[in-house]
Known about the structure:
alpha+beta; Aspartate Aminotransferase, domain 1
Amino acid sequence: MSEPDDGWSASAAAGFIEPVPMEDDPTELFAGDQGTLDVDVRRVLVRLLQRRFLLAEKNPAQWRTLLENQQLIESRLHDLFVRLVVDHDRGIAYKQQVRSAELDVPILLKDDPYNRAETLVLVHLRTVFQRERGTGETSARVDIEELEQTVLTYFDPDDHNLARGQREIRNAVQRLVTEGLLAEESAGRYRITPLVEVVLSTEKLTELNQWLREQNEVAP
Length: 220
């Protein structure tokens, strides 16, 4: 009886690939993973869901990943009834809750409105940003002392608790720093980012300024 051909045996054996354990499968990021996006794309998607904004200036690598995979990321967000807005000129990406009168849309993104102090700080920042851009400046900055002095003029004149007012303003500033509308460059000095234009449109700024003027006119 002839021996099996060694060449045939070797090539036949080469035709079979040893199974890879599931946990070692490079397409899986964790046990049972059914996702199809690369890990970097998933991170961008999660960041968009976690934060209000993604800034090209602050996160250049994630911004590049977003632009390279925008359609995929938009598709995942649309599955959640969330719209992606990419502002290339300002280098800003953010999400919006889809709302429809014709379709019963479950609300994923809850509105987190700004309180009085935060709104007043926003109005001042937006005004300064608009004024500086109007003069040809590429950036706008404010000092905390100037900010407090201006915003406090809109507080109740009968409220003489100055420390409380200053604390509210500083808490407002901290929230806006966290959200990326302000960037602290040195102690008490902040750069206003283009996000302020997204959060507070020109129309809304005009409306709020008119309301503030009316409040001052009726004040005793």
